[in-house]
Specification:
This protein is an alpha/beta fold. It is built from eight helices and eleven strands. The strands form three sheets. The chain has a seven-stranded mixed beta sheet. Strands 1-2 form a two-stranded antiparallel ribbon. Zinc ion binds next to loops. Zinc ion (ZN) binds next to loops.
Length: about 260
């Protein structure tokens, strides 16, 4: 009985960021949860929380190395992206019109409050910080509307990813930048097969039920083919002390793209 109750609470909180609009009590609940993990071993750059361990996510009390932040629910990839954005872009400095594709709550909860940013969140579904429910292969904005774009772990879900990349390139201003991340296997070429459509088969072939491909190193070429200049910032090249301090993983690679 006790276990069943915990399971319900866990389910309720663990996916809170993907709910249509997360409830008022989620933030206080997450603070209470995070108080159990206060410590000096790690820091979450997304929320600034100092903690003794990362968790399995949501309201879980189970510890997981480089797992979720108990305060803001950031994954390792979000912490990595936040650090990159802070250290290598003008996102925290200049006045920017930012397009965040499928906003990741661990990032958007702070980005929407930053006075220098005009935040525009888009997704197919109505979720927290999503202003427009749109398909990124048909973006209804004028060309060169945005100074910056964040697109984290989205393209592996999109059947016509080349069209989506082209659309994002189109709406980006000249001189602007776009940050892309995708799950990637550098040891092979991109693997995709449009005839594989069932969730079971997609999980078997692409690793997740909703993924439509596994990207390889040639992902860079897809970005370049749409006009971007591409700089790959490899996760394995991050300083060891930062990996340990922020709970990062080697396979969190950032594709920083510019439109010149
Ligand atoms: Zn955090």
């Amino acid at each position: 009985m006790k276990r069943a109750k915990y399971g319900k609470l866990h389910r309720l909180l663990s996916n809170f960021a993907s709910r249509p609009i997360h409830r008022w009590w989620v933030e206080p609940a997450m603070i209470c949860h995070a108080l159990l993990f206060v410590g000096n071993k790690f820091v979450c750059p997304c929320c600034g929380w100092r903690l003794r361990a990362f968790t399995h996510g949501g309201a879980s009390l189970k510890v997981r190395p480089s797992g979720y932040c108990p305060r803001c629910n950031s994954k390792a990839r979000h912490r990595r992206d936040w650090l990159f954005l802070k250290e290598s872009t003008n996102l925290f400095v200049d006045r920017l019109c930012l397009l965040h594709v499928s906003p990741k709550y661990a990032l958007s909860r702070r980005l929407v409050k930053m006075p220098n940013i005009h935040f525009v969140g888009i997704d197919l579904e109505k979720r927290t910080h999503v202003a427009y429910q749109i398909d990124i292969t048909k973006i209804p904005f004028e060309s060169e509307s945005f100074d910056a774009i964040i697109c984290i772990h989205v393209l592996e879900h999109v059947e016509n990813d080349r069209k989506a990349i082209g659309e994002l390139f189109r709406v980006l201003k000249k001189g602007g930048w776009a940050l892309f991340t995708v799950p990637i296997d550098f040891g092979r070429a991109t693997y995709e097969n449009p005839s594989i459509v069932s969730p079971e088969e997609r999980k078997k072939h692409f690793g997740e039920e909703q993924h439509v491909r596994v990207y390889g190193l040639d992902f860079t070429e897809r970005l370049k083919a749409c006009g971007f200049e591409v700089h790959l910032d490899r996760g394995e090249d991050v300083a060891v002390e930062n990996k340990e301090k922020y709970g990062l993983l080697d396979d969190e690679n950032v594709f920083y793209c510019t439109k010149t």
